[in-house]
């Protein structure tokens, strides 16, 4: 199966893929996809990452002309959404899986939204549908747009913005306060981000709120007590270092001050 020849499948007006399609596209086996799902099932949400068809739903699905004939002994089938395809790509974590996922995002999953937009524009221009149908199409486009989450490169931009903000806060990675508090501050940032946008992960940020999310990360500051602790530990560390040297311009003092965070980092890593 070539990527541009994937048979389009829809469920609830949303593009989806079967397990067989996911496995073939990502260059793996169906049983690997199923095993990864079973091992990480708590991360998958029904209706968000996948649909489960059984009974009458499965019977209706079998009747769709473009669907390849399913074995008669299959009693249920999983259909994977764009979010579900992302989780499978993360589980496999191969270059091919990520490359295929990016292609699917741009040319398969979001193609449905583009089709709806084109249909809407044509309908309004030619006036071939009623105003009620136009309103329905608009609502469908809005709902689809809101269901699309940020792409992989946009997730990376959020991570880079968070890292830049925190490095600026600590004055770089080679500081005592960074070694002691950075992990805690990172956790606080993403916790408040998820709470602000009502998400389970920043990776599920809606596409239409990406710029808002980027602005949040860049402007974020830790709690007042965290800032106080960061400033205090740097002040105490410098005061401690000064007890060994009367002259701050002493080359030995400057070298020790520069090397001490690295020495402390090795000590902290050894403890961890």
Strand coverage percent: 5-15%
Write down the domain tally.
3
Mean pLDDT: 79
The percent of residues in helical segments reads 55-70%
- Helix tally equals 12
Q: Widest sheet: strand order?
A: 1-2-4-3
SS elements, strand count: 4
Q: Report low-confidence residues grouped into runs of 5 or more.
A: none
Biggest pleated-sheet summary: 4 strands, antiparallel
Instruction: Give me the secondary-structure category.
Output: alpha+beta
Give me the Rg, rounded.
26 Å
Specify the overall morphology. Answer: elongated
Give the CA-CA distance, first to last residue.
47 Å
Order of helices and strands: EEHHEHEHHHHHHHHH
Question: What does the model show?
Answer:
- Strand 1 (9-11) and strand 2 form a beta hairpin.
- The two termini are 47 Å apart.
- The model has no long low-confidence stretch (mean pLDDT 79).
- The chain has 12 helices and 4 strands, in the order ββααβαβααααααααα.
- Helix 4 packs antiparallel against helix 5 (95-109), helix 6 (111-126) packs antiparallel against helix 7 (131-147) and helix 8 crosses helix 9 (176-197).
- The longest helix is centred in the C-terminal third of the chain and has 22 residues, at 176-197.
- It is an alpha+beta fold.
Question: What descriptors fit this protein?
Answer:
single chain, 272 residues, alpha+beta, Mlu1-box Binding Protein, DNA-binding Domain, 3 domains, four-stranded antiparallel beta sheet, 12 helices, elongated
